[in-house]
Design goal:
The protein has five helices and five strands; from the N terminus they run H-H-E-E-E-E-H-H-E-H. By secondary structure, it is an alpha+beta fold. Strand 1 and strand 2 form a beta hairpin. It is globular. The two termini are about 25 Å apart.
């Protein structure tokens, strides 16, 4: 099971990857939205913002998200680490229910390039 530090590190790496992206991925990462990522097996939620092509983690809270972010993710810590390391395909994990992504319809259309 991934630790809280490993999950935070994975989110930082994901942020760096988004910042270095180009084309459609850069456009999707260019959204300015509140973001939450609930790590189910640790029962911790990272909250922050997707802005300027980066994910800025602002806090880590015990339990599920307390407020409804504009983009909401939920998954196991191992799945987050595996996706960032390129060992787990996000689209397959999402389709199988291992990863949950909730957002407004327009945001989902933009985010599909990240899948």
């Amino acid at each position: 099971m991934a630790t809280m530090a490993e999950c935070r590190s994975a989110l930082d790496t994901l942020s760096d990857n988004l910042a270095g992206a180009d084309g459609d991925v850069r456009g999707a990462a260019g959204l300015d939205r509140s973001l939450s990522c609930h790590i189910r097996d640790l029962d911790v939620t990272f909250t922050g913002r997707l802005a300027d092509g980066r994910i800025r983690v602002l806090d880590a809270l015990d339990g599920p998200p307390r407020e409804k972010a504009e983009i909401r993710l939920a998954m196991a810590g191992d799945d987050l680490v595996a996706m960032v390391d390129g060992e787990l395909n996000f689209a397959k994990a999402w389709a199988s229910g291992r990863v949950r992504l909730e957002a407004g319809f327009r945001d989902l259309l933009k985010l599909k390039s990240l899948l």
